[in-house]
Design a protein that fits this description.
The chain contains 14 helices and 2 strands. By secondary structure, it is mainly alpha-helical. Strands 1-2 form a two-stranded parallel sheet. The radius of gyration is 19 Å and the shape is globular. 42% of the residues are buried.
Length: 285
């Protein structure tokens, strides 16, 4: 089913992987990331469009528009500090309201200390690894392990004179597959792996708010406080959230776009979402 969903265009590119590839290219003087994103503009989510725009702006001036991507903002801000640059960053949407560290001294911090920042997000630690920090954290958070894998892949292919390989979003694929199973059988075999699984898990009663809060403190620092936002959305007749993960999860639970006030917010991570939801009754047969 995985390859079938990908080939039919329902699963987006993995923005976490692609942003890491793009930043590694950017700080090491390669242009392959920009060229790839340029060729695939029509299928990009909003965060990858922000990556494309920021990559172009990086070499042209001091003002970088990172859109609403906290990942991209932290990675490029850290790179700017590390490289002694004076880049200014333009933030959009909910990113303007998030509490994010603004201390350049953190470039000298060890990874364990970086992992304490901003509700324990792993993004600062990942930024440090992308910039060459070779520390290894035992039992790293999910996204920090993605960063380790990304750096290893990027270095291996570059040493061979080749170009890195894109990836499709395994987190969204796993949720989509579990949802199709639920439609077909009325039950779901889904194990949450990371914070981006929380909204989906909460919507389908796989995880409680208390367990989500304890397991992933960083849930409070995304497009919304996802612990509170999910509880609110589960009670609303009209879902007013602008958080893409919340909206996707509630729409799947309701099997409908009806009552979603901000449907376009899904473009941040899954621009194919509404087509997937509409076609989903015919995808599991």
């Amino acid at each position: 089913m995985r390859q079938d969903l990908i080939e039919k265009g329902y699963i987006p590119l993995d923005k976490s992987w692609m942003i890491r590839m793009g930043v590694l290219d950017l700080v090491n003087g390669y242009r392959d990331g920009v060229k790839y994103l340029e060729r695939h503009q029509e299928e990009l989510n909003e965060d990858l469009k922000s990556l494309y725009r920021a990559a172009l702006q990086w070499d042209l001036g001091d003002s970088i528009n990172v859109g609403e991507s906290g990942t991209l903002y932290r990675f490029l801000k850290f790179a700017s500090w590390e490289l002694g640059l004076d880049k200014k960053f333009v933030l959009q949407g909910t990113l303007k309201d998030r509490e994010i560290c603004d201390d350049p001294k953190i470039v000298d911090w060890p990874l364990e200390q970086l992992l304490t920042l901003d509700n324990r997000t792993s993004q600062w630690a990942s930024a440090s690894v992308l910039m060459g920090n070779q520390e290894r954290v035992q039992n790293p958070p999910y996204k920090l392990q993605v960063t380790y894998d990304a750096v290893e892949h990027w270095k291996t292919v570059r040493e061979s004179g080749e170009v890195w390989k894109p990836r499709f979003d395994e987190t969204i694929w796993a949720q989509a597959s579990a949802y199709l199973q639920w439609l077909k059988d009325g039950k779901m075999d889904f194990v949450p792996q990371q914070a981006e699984d929380y909204c989906f898990s909460r919507a389908f009663d796989i995880m409680t708010a208390e367990k989500g809060k304890a397991r992933w403190p960083s849930l409070r620092g995304h497009e919304s406080n996802r612990i509170m936002e999910m509880e609110k959305a589960l009670q609303e007749r009209e879902v007013t959230s602008r958080d893409h993960r919340v909206v996707q999860s509630i729409a799947m639970l309701k099997k409908s776009k009806e009552g979603i006030v901000n449907p376009d917010c899904v473009n941040k991570s899954w621009p194919q979402f509404w087509r997937f939801l509409e076609d989903s009754p015919n995808l599991f047969s």
